[in-house]
Design goal:
The chain is of the alpha/beta class. It contains 2 helices and 10 strands. It binds copper (II) ion (CU). Copper (II) ion binds next to loops.
């Protein structure tokens, strides 16, 4: 009877372990809200009557994402790192982007990057580079693997108990 109680405790621990795993695994797949994980992000430079001059004005991306600004307006604009008060900081500068043309830049560092248009200093935007919120495939696979093994163990142990 005593050993049976111990066995029940063992099974309960396993079930608890698997339960905790099932709570953890889905949360690993979730993304931080508003963070674009696609690694390729487009910002549209819009005419004043259409939307924000830089649309979206503020974006969250993950490291090493390529951001492309497409000029949908009918006048030229620049995408220049820095802000109108302090001026260009030299990190990136598109030069004049003519209507219909685009400019791309890969953000390799984590941080907040302000930019503006040198022709129209009222046009400003922000790119925020976050730590990658999505786990590498390996770690997710590892968790699923552990859960499968544990589940199999429970089934085997339960079956063994009935024999
Ligand atoms: Cu402009």
């Amino acid at each position: 009877m005593k050993s049976l109680n111990n066995f029940g405790l063992f099974n309960f621990s396993l079930i608890l372990f698997v339960f905790i795993l099932t709570m953890i695994i889905p949360s690993y797949g979730e993304e931080i809200p508003n963070t674009n994980s696609s690694k390729q992000v487009t910002i549209f430079i819009q005419p004043p009557n259409v939307g924000m001059p830089f649309d979206p004005k503020e974006i969250h991306i993950i490291q090493n994402s390529l951001v492309t600004w497409i000029n949908n307006d009918n006048v030229s604009h620049t995408v220049t790192s820095g802000d109108p008060q302090q001026g260009a900081n030299g990190k990136f500068d598109s030069g004049l982007i003519k209507p219909g043309k685009e400019f791309s830049y890969t953000f390799t560092e984590i941080g907040t990057f302000n930019y503006y248009c040198q022709v129209h200093p009222a046009m400003t935007g922000i790119v925020i580079v976050d730590v990658n919120p999505v786990p590498e495939f390996g770690s997710l696979f590892g968790l699923v693997f552990v859960a499968l093994i544990t589940g199999t163990l429970i089934i085997l142990k339960t079956f063994e108990r009935r024999i």
